[in-house]
TrEMBL record:
Lineage per the UniProt record: Eukaryota, Viridiplantae, Streptophyta, Embryophyta, Tracheophyta
InterPro entries from the UniProt entry: GASA
Keyword vocabulary terms for this entry: Gibberellin signaling pathway, Signal
Domain of life: Eukaryota
Signal sequence residues: 1-26
Organism name: Camelina sativa (False flax)
This protein's name: Gibberellin-regulated protein 2-like
Similarity section: Belongs to the GASA family.
Length: 99
């Protein structure tokens, strides 16, 4: 009987620690769907648009694309191949929407 209690307490401690670790690692983003973590679009887009001459316009477009794709290519320009969804969004005129 004492051994069973010991095993249950040990199991409870393991479950609590695992839950805590998952909660700590998911603190960077909000869980979306099954195991997908939403990225920080504001932070990534600020970096992406930091050298743009029209910062507000760039941020608006970037945040729109990021919210759809959950991805922003690294750097201030280019690297669209690293985020295919981001690279495929176009305006009504057929131009690339995402900076």
């Amino acid at each position: 009987m004492a051994r069973l209690r010991y095993q249950l307490v040990l199991l409870l401690i393991i479950v609590c620690l695992t839950t805590y670790e998952l909660h700590v690692h998911a603190a960077d983003g909000v869980k979306v769907g099954e195991g997908v973590v939403k990225i920080d679009c504001d932070g990534r887009c600020k970096g992406r648009c930091s050298k743009s001459s029209r910062t507000k316009l760039c941020l608006r477009a970037c945040n729109s694309c990021c919210s759809r794709c959950n991805c922003v290519p690294p750097g201030t320009a280019g690297n669209h191949h690293l985020c295919p969804c981001y690279a495929s969004i176009t305006t009504r005129g057929g131009r690339l929407k995402c900076p």
